[in-house]
Design a protein that fits this description.
Length: 358
């Protein structure tokens, strides 16, 4: 919004020319979302506590979690509002990719909100059924894939990490592929959200990584030099990623151990969807499996646990997702959280190394 209002005034004062720079607006979007989170965090927590919108804790998990029962949840609303407001303020609103990513974020947030509402307010411990939840996610993802497929500028080829000459073109099959990437990222982040600050840390690290990828993908000379797909206009997603970083940092202020609020599905599904959508638009879809390695590990631990139990009647881990396994092995919760953050940074560095290792 501010870009459209103030940048045209650059002809009157050189001061307003700063609004044309993506780097400036990304920084301001980060700071704006951070301040909104700081200002609205405590009132939201008080509101959730007043109306007894609290977390329900499984009694078959680590005993240390039983004391978390009743902790306010659905704090992802804070992230969603701060992120969306900041983007609308600082991003170019004539950029289709901004609207695509925001649409996925808000749409997935709505799915998560419905799930949280059924669980916490209506006291339906199952919430939205898995089939309905996944179905809605895939529908939103297919809409995104179809819009991108219709975009004459956007290419449906895949960039394979470490291999510059392998670029298969999926054509119309890019539509379901994009839907699977976005839905998969969303559910993987959702599975990671089980400890205080565990999910938001890797989300911010992965988001910062894709902020760099978005800037490169939207910059013709950098994209050509590094031999990555050039997507005109995708650089504007730096502003979206910046807003996510700011909102995430503000939320972490309240979500750090011991957490005053949990993000709930409204937060985890929307943030995962955002990462998946940015990965699709910037043409770094496969690389998300590396940059978001922690999310992949968490999701795979659940898949392997379920498959092993159904096939052999035995469990591989003490409990899945895998962060609970380490808790039951005797690791303190803060140790699990920080070590997973370190692993996330490790994966992010590997992902960024692919820019040169080709």
């Amino acid at each position: 919004m501010l870009y459209h209002l103030l940048y045209p005034l650059g002809s009157n004062s050189i001061l307003f020319n700063v609004f044309k720079y993506i780097s400036f607006r990304a920084i301001m979007a980060t700071l704006t979302a951070l301040m909104i989170s700081f200002l609205l965090g405590k009132p939201l927590i008080d509101y959730l506590r007043e109306f007894q919108i609290g977390q329900m804790v499984r009694d078959d998990g680590p005993k240390s979690h039983l004391g978390k029962s009743g902790t306010p949840t659905m704090g992802g609303l804070l992230i969603l509002f701060a992120l969306t407001f900041s983007c609308l303020l600082w991003a170019r609103l004539d950029n289709i990719y901004v609207w695509i990513v925001l649409g996925v974020t808000v749409g997935y947030g709505a799915v998560g909100f419905l799930d949280d509402y059924l669980k916490v307010v209506r006291r339906n411990h199952r919430g939205l059924s898995g089939k309905h939840k996944l179905g809605l996610q895939l529908v939103i993802g297919c809409v995104v894939g179809f819009v991108l497929w219709l975009d004459p500028v956007f290419k449906t080829t895949l960039a394979v990490p470490f291999f510059k000459n392998i670029t298969p073109d999926l054509g119309i099959w890019y539509v379901p592929f994009a839907a699977l990437v976005i839905a998969g990222a969303s559910n993987a982040v959702n599975l990671t959200d089980g400890l205080d600050g565990l999910a938001i840390g890797p989300v911010m690290i992965c988001g910062a990584t894709y902020l760099i990828f978005a800037y490169i993908s939207g910059h013709l000379k950098l994209a050509q030099y590094l031999q990555v797909p050039y997507v005109p206009g995708s650089g504007e997603l730096c502003v979206v990623c910046g807003a996510m970083l700011g909102a995430g940092m503000g939320f972490l202020w309240y979500n750090s151990y011991p957490a005053e609020v949990f993000m709930g599905d409204v937060g985890s599904l929307s943030l995962g969807g955002l990462l998946g959508a940015v990965a699709v638009v910037t043409k770094h879809e496969i690389l998300l499996a590396i940059a978001g390695g922690v999310f992949v590990i968490e999701a795979m631990s659940v898949i392997l646990q379920v498959a092993s139990f159904k096939m052999t009647g035995k469990r591989i881990f003490n409990m899945a997702p895998i962060h609970h396994h380490f808790e039951l092995k005797g690791w303190a919760e803060p140790k699990v959280i920080v070590r997973f953050w370190i692993i996330s940074i490790f994966f992010a560095l590997i992902a960024m190394s692919t820019l040169k290792l080709r």
